[in-house]
Queue: 3 jobs
Job 1
Amino acid sequence: MQTTAAALTMVRDDAFFLKAWLRHYGEALGRENCTIINHGRGEEVAELARGCNVIGIPGDPHPNFDMKRWRLLNNLVQGLRCYYDHVIVGDVDELVVVDPAAGVSLLEFLRDQPLRRVLTPVGLEVVHRIDSEPAPIEDHILGPRRHVRLAPHYSKPCVVSQGVKLARGGHFAQSAKLHTPDGLLLFHLKFCDFGTYVQVMDHRNAVTEAVGASVRDAAIGRHWFAQARGEDRAVFEAFEAAAPEAFDLTGVRRAMHRSWKKRGETGFWQFDRVESERVMVLPERFLGVV
């Protein structure tokens, strides 16, 4: 029975991403070490997550949904830390991986990491180039999808082995030291498939409509609201328009450390998050990793 690492997420109906999350962390850590908050007690979520620790909670719409969600996740992370060295926490469409070039599994990687710190992987957005990647995703995502872009907003402090509070959304931590181990990555899957993106955004827009609050009044990410959505196909056409470059993360971690500073008077810390439109081709070694 391993006590090195546990994974934690919260999900409501996102079967596509939950399957990927379960396949990744179930194989890497063992399903018995995966905890899923089943928001709304969905039957499909409960069925897919058999063998995991499933906690069902009410799913009534609430304008402070995200605030409540991260209050729950923060407390569960600290509880799980009593039993595991590291706790990986994040949204269901975020997967922490180790670059295969490191030659070790995620569990082996974490077993060698010092404790009492927060690890921040480099965030990469998996993008679907509709014209050049027509194949559907039937099993693994990396294979049918080969392209990523740098996503500093998803370089999240999400591997926790100390008593620390994470901000709403998990983007910042109340930890003064930044740890960015070489080879540790986070793949964000929101844009990995055009059809799935449309379905998920339709569902999220319906949730915020049921809440009945405005972007300003609700503690819910702006991207959940229809008025902030934009035109779906245009988003993916931009991925297609970018000329793919070779995979290269040189200097990314160094830049994160150079810009490391307090986030005002919040107690959280941050690095500069400069968005990039560069699209990179993943090397062959990543195919099948997610």
Job 2
Amino acid sequence: MGWDWVAPLITGASGATAVFFTWLTGAQGRSHTERMVAQSQQAERRAHLLKERRDAYFAVMQAAHLELQRLEYEQTTQTARLHELEQYWTTERRIQMSADAVIGLFAFGSDEAREFIYEWREAVGLGDLAKMNDLAERFRNLVKSELEIE
């Protein structure tokens, strides 16, 4: 008679232990899910920013290439090609392209990439084709390193 209380006590303790570990497993599962969602959102943000940076760099490279071509045609007196280029890429379109490129670069580019714009504007102002080609090559290398392109 004295030991009749042992079995219900052990059963109750086992039940309480089972409830605790069930709760613990659920809590760990929720915590793990929250971490996975946070990591997924962070990876998605990084991918979005990388795409924006890539697009901004592409716009800068496109505008730079167009300006290089235009200046090269102008300096080598290839008037037919210069006229053809300026017919398609009107001054207004080139200005709009450059503005979009600069905005994208300042919004998503690195500090090193932003420095490029100041040097580029100076070289364009001087009409220094050699310096512009050098800057364009340096910018391409910067883009490759930042976007990890081989």
Job 3
Amino acid sequence: MSPKKIHGAVAALSALALLTACTPADSDPDATRDGAKTAEAEAAAEPVFRIGTVSEAEAAQATEQDSSAKASNSTASPTSTQTSAPQQTGEVVESGAETTVAPGERISLSVENAALSDISITESDHPRIKSDPGVFFDTAGSELEAADSTEDAKAGSSTPSESASGDADAITAPDDAAAWMSAYDLVADSTYELSATATSADGEEVDFTSTVTVSASDASPMAVRTILSDDQTVGVGAPIILTFGSTVAKKYRDDVEHRLSVKVTDKDGKKRKVEGSWAWLPDDPQSRLHFRPKEFWPAHSKVSVDVPLKNVPTTDDTVGQNDLTLDFDIGRKQVVKANAKTHRMVVTRDGKEVMNFPASLGAAKSPSYNGTHVVMSKASDYTMTSEQWDYETDVRWAVRIHNNGEFIHAAPWSTGVQGSANVSHGCINLSTARAKQYYDSAIFGDPVEITGSNATLTTAASDISDWVYEWDEWKKMSALPTS
């Protein structure tokens, strides 16, 4: 959850804090007996559940109040105490009842006469979305540390956490949890299933459920698209690329990203564990959101992507226009390794060498770039132009590997030095027959690794620079927590 939402939830919970039971301090035996009777009555009382909401405006105001409170606390003397009168807010709701709320709000659930054991909120139309982890609070309205920190909280994870009760969608509550608030805004025109388990003082577990219906929104739509196609077969270095119709505001990026899921299976449908992360690349000028695994995709896999972004806020005035799903295949693991010092281009496929060609890479004044490129597109006939070097040349069997002008292509004019010298303007030159052989084998997303040059790729100047980033750097570009 973003700092804005954490602070807003913490301060707003001052309005959700629960009344705490007090034991009389009177030394009168009758008062003690009366207190005991009161305690017994409270212990036997049934849990009472309340549902409330916090709007964006209230959360913003709460953030400011929370900052002031923290500054005040930092200057208080060690012996001073600061307390506030806990209040109960929200409507008392019976289990199974329906609740209607406005879009853009966050939902809260509190319980009296018991402690929360676990909670889950799932969107009925999109069961693959991970349950909102939210924030838990005690009876005084103080934020509680999460019961555990799992890999599921990390950026890019697509596996839901599991509660102590075994519910894969439920979040385990920390000890003494009396209230919970969602971390993400509720999506317009949606239905959520809210469920929780509370444990009373005598150890009895009580289940609670409620259907939460969110009304429609009049915000303008923003489209989301992907460059891949269903059933497309791509190379092991292919990123998942989402592009938006405009710029997604930073404060809504976690709301967008946490809804996305990526599932990887083998050809028989058995799940494969793949560590990966989404990352928001620099706007160009629209927002771009990419997913790549830590290492290359496992070969011969199937990838299923769920992008349920219809009605999800993208700015204060816009929401996602559409949901999107994508199912594609990872093909064989074909990797090109081109060395500017040895003047060779070696191609391996599933670990076996299938091509080993003499090549000519970029000359000293116009070098090829060290680093991992990926095949972006290819054309059997292509006209290469360069304002920098003032040329226009028709080539055959051109495979684009970067937006800075680097290709692998046929260059019959340089066959005499291929294997012994670098004379190109940054491209990898091959003979016509060899270029055709490689061209026929190349697919989108195949890695091309160049070494031995005097220049190195940067993260700029390409639509696909995903593999130029170090893994830790890549994860930091996620809008979700990385640990």
